[in-house]
Amino acid sequence: MRGHVHRPLALVAAALVGFQGNSGGTPRRPFGSTSISQCQNKPPPPTTLQHRRLFAGGVPDTPLTNDRLVKTIPLNQYTPTLHIAASSGSVQVATDLIANGANVNASDVAGTTPLMVAASLGDQTMCQLLLDANADLDATAVDGSTALHVAAYHGQLDIVTLLLQAGADMYATRPDGIDLLHIAIREGHRQLVAALLLAKDPYILTEFHLEIASKWGHDQLVADVVSAQPHLVTFSVVNAAVESGRLATTRILLAGITRPSDLRQAIVNGALLHAAATGQLAVLQLLLEEGAEITATDDIGNSVVHWAVRHNHLDVLLCVLHHFPDQLIPLLSTPNHAGEFPVHLAARGGHWTMLQRLEGLGMSLHERCLTNGFTPLHVAVMHGHFKAVTFLHARGCNFHQPTEYLTGKSASDLAAQHGHDEIAQFIAQHQREPSQHANAA
């Protein structure tokens, strides 16, 4: 909240001309508030037709004139009648209900008010009727959304304008920190974003806003922001596009970097590692075309090989090894700054199939970490990865081998220390048996 309560937005007409809030022939869908559904990648569920009258003052249970809806409403449910009228666009029904004392600010189990329902559907006539009946602009649903937030989520710019002119707080913020600009950017509503940025007391764009737009691939909006404020293109913004597999968005962001070439190179290299970690092979290939260095490492010495192995992205690993064998095959036997080899990273994630492939590429499954003397078996036991433990045992790894000479712990010690009972039992059953190589765990 920025303290500017009831300041109408000076909406620039040009920013709103031609907007169709419910274009494309999409069906009318009333708002149903759930947790943080308005900022997630799924539409909020429709308001269920749970029907119950909520009349102030105990109005007699008689059907209203021309009100076929009211005649058929069961009285043992939980959604106020006015909600049903709003969701169906029945202005006359709503008018009659209000005239007979219906609570215009009644809320359903999700905290949704009739004004929120009408706002979600872009029904100006219904919204105006409710506003004229003193509907509360500041009423919030369970997740803290106001009718203004709901209208923004559904891209109903005409309703946004109407509510702001009626005195809605443009800067109202939900308990989770989501405000009107976050919603507009998350849903890719360029015209609403433009209007908010052109207001008398405008919102200020930040790196986080561009990160949201990049994550969800709103390319035109991203291009608008990058063109106006290229300094907002940072590591986290590019990585948001990379991890979501947004090829076009990534191109737009990289094209917008106007700062020194060494900073651009650092961003591209960091994005390459992030693509390997998140398994975004197509984006990784794009980044190589954009000049990323295949042998780049992060602050702790992890390369694309280390990250692909750590997160079990076999397709990424095999692709880069195929195209850059001379540069990358040596990295399979190169530790990071923590002394961990790729086999240790695979064991940490319990990726026994990756361990199998690394062994096939000539890597030793008995390699010790340079800082603590752990073998892949010790790592798998410590992290409780039963399948990886059984695989490594089948490959001849020794349960008795300590992590460090004399002072270290055995696999059995680590299982007991970390409470991995199933692994401890497996070790107890097999530690006296000679380990035999097998084809699979």
UniProtKB/TrEMBL annotation:
Entry keyword GTP-binding: no
Chain positions covered by the region annotation Disordered: 22-46
SMART domains given in the database record: ANK (SM00248)
The keyword 4Fe-4S is annotated on this UniProt entry: no
Matches recorded under SUPFAM superfamilies: Ankyrin repeat
Signal peptide: 1-24
Family annotation (InterPro entries): Ankyrin_rpt, Ankyrin_rpt-contain_sf
Biased composition (Polar residues): 32-41
Keyword list, A-Z: ANK repeat, Repeat, Signal
Mapped ANK repeat ranges: 77-109, 110-142, 143-175, 271-299, 372-404
Name under which the protein is recorded: Uncharacterized protein
Organism name: Aphanomyces astaci (Crayfish plague agent)
